[in-house]
């Protein structure tokens, strides 16, 4: 009996020579090249949009995955039994961006800036379901602030506190202050933002820009996994990538500023974008993430990993503040 993925492959007009299991997908060697078959969680409309924008990037010579449609009418294939949709797309065998390698990191940042530049030239309509609301980040921070307060109240009302909870409460006031200050600063920025400047900041974003989605293929960096693409402030991609990298490099100020300059060298950053970048990196996102994981897990058993993560961000806090001071100074000079 065929497994479900092999039956899905039979729907395509491809000669399948060989298959191999990949990370949550099936790598397929075919008569038309190497492809990746994986489940697609978005809507048909999202798939159609991605098909269009990825074809646009391909025609512009930008190396990124391209979706291979099922037929002239359908982008996705469907598993009728399990009611799961699948997409077929190009596969790039190669090494992922090495988060310990400075050259890889800066190359990835430049590639991101190139993507942002190019998508500004996309002339097709942007569907509403791709767009993020103008005040979406403010609402996100406000929600995170309420969640942090909820966790604090829960722990405070406990008669016996475990090691994680004691540690969490020791630094809560400091991180709460940061969260509230950043939220207020973001509200002030958005309230005073000129419409023409705001429109320049917005564009198509990869949505999940990390080292796993940047692959060195035949000497050129290729981008993959665009399923989370959105229309938002474009420096959100840069901020998310920088946060992940800098957490691994103890918030190295030199590396952080090099990343900003590398991006700016390809796509010029507006002063307002630099301020937005600062506000996104200054929010204590990791502390909130740890708190959220704790609150939504089985609290009768505390993972040692959560304690380690909390201890790590506490140990990095001075370096993080040093980087943010440098970025704030740099931003104020622009």
* Separation, N- and C-terminal Cα atoms: 64 Å
Structural category is: alpha+beta
Number of domains: 2
CATH fold category name of the largest domain: Aminoglycoside 3'-phosphotransferase, Chain: A, domain 2
As a percent range, the share of helical residues equals 40-55%
Stretches where pLDDT is under 50 for at least 5 consecutive residues are none
General description of the model:
The protein has 334 residues and is α+β, with helices and mostly antiparallel strands. The protein folds into two domains: 4-91, Phosphorylase Kinase, domain 1, CATH 3.30.200; 102-333, Aminoglycoside phosphotransferase (APH), C-terminal lobe (Aminoglycoside 3'-phosphotransferase, Chain: A, domain 2, Alpha-Beta Complex). It is built from eleven helices and eleven strands. The strands form three sheets. Strands 1, 2, 3, 4, 5 and 6 form a six-stranded antiparallel beta sheet that branches. Helix 4 runs antiparallel to helix 5. The longest helix is centred in the last third of the chain and has 30 residues, at 304-333. The protein starts with a helix and ends with a helix.
């Amino acid at each position: 009996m065929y497994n479900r993925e092999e039956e899905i492959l039979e729907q395509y007009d491809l000669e399948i020579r060989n298959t191999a299991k990949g990370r949550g997908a099936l790598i397929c060697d075919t008569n038309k090249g190497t492809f990746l078959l994986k489940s697609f969680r978005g809507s048909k409309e999202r798939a159609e949009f991605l098909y269009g924008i990825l074809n646009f990037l391909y025609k512009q010579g930008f190396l990124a995955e391209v979706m291979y449609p099922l037929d002239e009418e359908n982008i996705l294939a469907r598993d009728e039994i399990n009611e799961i949709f699948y997409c077929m797309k190009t596969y790039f065998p190669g090494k992922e961006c090495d988060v310990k390698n400075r050259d890889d990191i800066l190359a990835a940042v430049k590639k991101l800036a190139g993507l942002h530049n190019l998508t500004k030239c996309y002339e097709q309509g942007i569907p509403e379901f791709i767009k993020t609301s103008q005040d979406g980040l403010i609402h996100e921070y406000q929600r995170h602030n309420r969640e942090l307060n909820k966790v604090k109240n829960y722990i405070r009302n406990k008669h016996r506190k475990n090691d994680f909870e004691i540690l969490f409460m020791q630094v809560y006031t400091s991180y709460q202050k940061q969260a509230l200050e950043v939220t207020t600063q973001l509200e002030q920025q958005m309230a005073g933002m000129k419409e023409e400047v705001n429109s320049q900041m917005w564009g198509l974003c990869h949505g999940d820009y990390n080292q796993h989605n940047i692959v060195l293929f035949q000497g050129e960096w290729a981008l993959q996994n665009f399923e989370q693409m959105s229309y938002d402030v474009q420096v959100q991609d840069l901020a998310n990538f920088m946060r992940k990298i800098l957490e691994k490099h103890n918030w190295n100020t030199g590396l952080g500023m090099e990343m900003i300059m590398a991006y700016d060298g390809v796509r010029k950053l507006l002063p307002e974008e630099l301020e937005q970048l600062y506000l996104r990196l200054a929010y204590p996102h990791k502390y909130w993430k740890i708190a959220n994981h704790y609150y939504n897990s089985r609290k009768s058993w505390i993972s040692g990993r959560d304690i380690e993560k909390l201890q790590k961000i506490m140990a990095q806090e001075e370096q993080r503040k040093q980087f943010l001071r440098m970025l704030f100074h740099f931003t104020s000079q622009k």
